[in-house]
Amino acid sequence: MASSSTQDLVVDGAELSHPITIKRGKTSRIYQVIAYPTQLTRKITNGFLDGTTTPDPKTMKKCRWHTAGIIRFHVNPETNLIYEARPDLNELEITLECLLEESHKEQLAIRAEEVYGIEFSPDNFIISPFQTFMAQLTIRISGVTRTYYGILVDNKELHPMRIIFNIEDRDEILEIASKLDQPRDHDIVLRYDYSLSGTSTASASLTISAEDVNKIDLEKQIFGKSEAEKLVVSRSFMDKITANITTKLRVVEDIGVGGSSFGQDLIRQEIANAMSASGFQKFSINDIKQMQSADTDITDDLKADIINSVSSSNDDNSESTHHNLDESSSADSSDVLNEKSNANRNAGGQSTSSESNWGVKASYAGIGGELNKSNKDSQSTNFDNSNSAAKKDHEIISTESARKNENSGSKKNSNSNSNAVQGQIRQTKNIDATIVHRSDIVKGFNISLSRFHHQLATTSIKGRLTTKADVEMQEEIAAKENAEREKQARKEEEAKNAKKKMMRQESELRPQQIDDLLHAIDSLDEDKLKEMHAEFLELCPDGQMTREVFSNAFRNLYPKGKVNNYCRYAFPVFDQDSTGALNFTEYVMAMHAHESDDLEDSLGLAFDVFDYDKSGTIDQKEILHMITSTNEL
């Protein structure tokens, strides 16, 4: 057996199971034999099933199934016993065997062909190694039913399997041994429990059929009142549809032990992929607008995106106009301020001129001149104050105007940049969408998901043996072998007889064959030909004449001659189909070849007979053989 480390087996339901019948005399028992595939075998056979792997002889030879076959007691052919007692060591050894005959392998191979549709051979099935093997022996000792526990000595041993029971009482070992000497006469039960280690595959599966899809009127949900053949669908719209489908269909996953759920996101994604083979792509607003046509519509949310895009563009244009008006207003205010300032300046100049004249007059009157001076200062101060206020207002308004101009310029640039960005956005492919065809939705779709998760696993198998039913003694084994040999001999004899019968039927004298031979050999008539045919079948029941039989038949033509040498050279010439034997037509031609009246034919025949190296020439040695052989006739 193999080591007890993890084996390269799959033990999760991928096994082959087949009933095997074991006959013993007039009785028979049926055993359910289980064979576990290796991981490579599982991979190859899965490929056969889904069509991804093309079977070929080399690949199929790599496939292996491991099986324990049929476990039963093993009878030592030398001692004719199923045990060996070692009382001094407090040990009792019972031997078992895994029975897996060639016929059992053939039945398993047939079962594999039924499952995978590929022809396998018995070589694909081998005895399985055990990771652990424990046994429990139940026997009645001194009027009391006792149970003893044993283990497999070495799991590397293939045949036989030795189970060791440690029994402290020496007398008990001897009493058990005395009963095992005649196992058929006592009720002795051996229960076993063995494990196979490998990997298991936890699976999860989900199926949605076209029939299920058609029940929820999916076409109306997607296309609504639209009569278009194709519909451009956004991802958000598709998410709503797939969520609705999973709700209405009540999608349920079949999750095996140790398996995990696919999750709603994956299920919805698979539904979306099934509805649109092209899948989601990136589109711009302009792309979406251009896709609208007589047979192609778009979903409402995409239409809203287009409208929003146009509205944003109009708002930007409106704001740009408002800023232009503000800029014009600011310019007008600046012009008014300039006019006011100029007016004040003009008024101040006239006052100065007037006071200057009046001041001259005041030079003649001291008081008046003083008063005039005071008025002059007052007016001059008013002028300066007025001009200063105007300048201050001008500065404030100019500053505000400059600020507004700056803001206006900034907003102009911003608006210009916004328009540029808006144009870029309309060209940017940032919309996830796909195209759904109405015809695909109407006919429905199928979804099948499966997931496999490999994990370490161990399978435990229990069994029960009784010495009355599961021990095959040596005489029974010998009788069985003799019966098998007789059966095989009968099969061979039947096959031989069937072959002879077929050949006899093939060698029946046919009308066309009679006509051809009578035409080729003038000295023959139909009665003579039929007589020769009867003699031929008597000599060769299978319709094939060997060289030895031919020599004996040819000797009848030359009873006093020596025909062996001549027949040795002539036989290959008459065996025209080179089968190593003569059929009836070749036999007739050989027996009458010497009767030809045509000299050229006779010489041609002689040449062919004695040119035995088929060189196309007859050398001196071959001429000598020809003369010697013909003289001996």
UniProtKB/TrEMBL annotation:
Region described as Disordered: spans on this chain: 309-357, 371-425, 479-508
SUPFAM superfamilies: EF-hand
Keyword match Lipoprotein: yes
GO molecular function: calcium ion binding
Polar residues: compositionally biased ranges: 327-357, 377-389
Comp. bias (Low complexity): 407-419
EF-hand domain residues: 562-597, 598-633
Annotated CDD domains: EFh
InterPro entries: EF-hand-dom_pair (IPR011992), EF_Hand_1_Ca_BS (IPR018247), EF_hand_dom (IPR002048), Recoverin (IPR028846)
Biased composition annotated in UniProt, kind: Basic and acidic residues: 390-406
PANTHER family linked: CALCIUM BINDING PROTEINS (PTHR23055), NEUROCALCIN HOMOLOG (PTHR23055:SF178)
UniProt similarity note: Belongs to the recoverin family.
Protein name: EF-hand domain-containing protein
